[in-house]
Write a structure and sequence with these properties.
This protein has 300 residues and is an alpha+beta fold. It contains ten helices and ten strands.
Length: 300
């Protein structure tokens, strides 16, 4: 299953990565090669990829950028790797994911095994019954804005395999090709749409938010899904202060809170009959409770 190569990457590991990529489907990358086209000479293609990965000679091709319209207007830029590159990324992700899973907070729900958006909403709904107020926030262009130096510090602390470090660095700095065909030299961020990107996002946000909340605000439970989160508070003043503190923390980590998707929310239900009217509150697209969002507390 292995050969004498600088890096101990088995052929079996590459084959399992291919099965995972095949199950997830996905569009063609910069080479216009679909999964079906890759499978036309599957054995040769997988052997070539394994040989390059195990020898240290694998260099990722540029990422194809695709514009996806947002429901609220504007576009989101996705980075689509080639089929072979997605398999290579899955090889590394499978190697580092287990160790990082032991690090990640139990209330981090995005892009993790056996966790989902529905789980995040369920725990948020339950906590809204216990806490009168909460803070909801979203990060503007989170995948695009991750600072490489901060991310590298976290990667080097937890990823010890030389080959995993090597290839993660190459994916971080790989160029992109814009929708109109022009080369794009990247200086920060991870492509949204890559295989390894969500794992890197969770690692970054673990230190940027999760561990910081545990250290600085242990009495405020939270649920985070990627760059979208809700944290619970006992009072309006506490929620107001927490929102401001989170905003400062994100800025320290070179991220920006989304002004139109962040604010303080009153958890009104049948037992809370205050001055605040009933307004639908959603988290990750799911209904949580009838709530009031006090827009004056949104951070600009």
């Amino acid at each position: 299953m292995t050969s004498i190569k600088p890096f101990d990457i088995s052929k079996r590991r590459v084959l399992e990565a291919y099965w995972h990529v095949k199950a997830n489907r996905g569009a063609a990358g910069i080479d216009d090669e679909s999964i079906e086209m890759f499978e036309a000479d599957l054995s040769r293609n997988l052997h070539k990829l394994w040989n390059r990965l195990a020898s240290g000679s694998y260099f990722p091709p540029p990422v194809r950028q695709v514009q996806i319209p947002k429901r609220q207007g504007g576009v989101r830029i996705l980075g689509v790797p080639t089929v072979a590159d997605r398999i290579a990324q899955q090889v590394v992700k499978a190697r580092v994911e287990g160790e990082l899973e032991m690090l990640f907070h139990p209330d981090s729900y995005g892009y993790r095994p056996n966790k989902s958006a529905a789980d995040a909403v369920a725990v948020t709904r339950e906590r809204c019954w216990k806490y009168d107020w909460c803070v909801e926030f979203d990060i503007r262009r989170a995948f695009d804005e991750l600072d490489w130096d901060l991310l590298r510090t976290a990667i080097r602390k937890h990823v010890k395999d030389p080959w995993a470090l090597l290839y993660i660095e190459r994916w971080l700095t790989a160029p992109a090709v814009s929708p109109d065909g022009h080369p794009v030299q990247r200086t920060k961020g991870v492509p949204q749409g890559s295989v390894i990107g969500p794992t890197m996002m969770n690692l970054f946000m673990h230190y940027c938010f999760d561990a910081w909340m545990q250290r600085e605000r242990p009495r405020n439970p939270f649920a985070r899904y990627c760059d979208d989160a809700v944290a619970h508070c006992r009072s309006k003043n506490e929620a107001e202060a927490l929102l401001a503190a989170i905003d400062r923390r994100l800025q320290e980590c070179k991220l920006q809170m989304h002004p139109e998707k962040s604010g303080v929310v009153y958890c009104k239900d049948g037992s809370r009959r205050g001055l605040y009217p009933r307004i639908q509150f959603t988290f990750l697209g799911y209904s949580v409770l009838q709530k009031h969002t006090d827009k004056e507390f949104i951070m600009n």
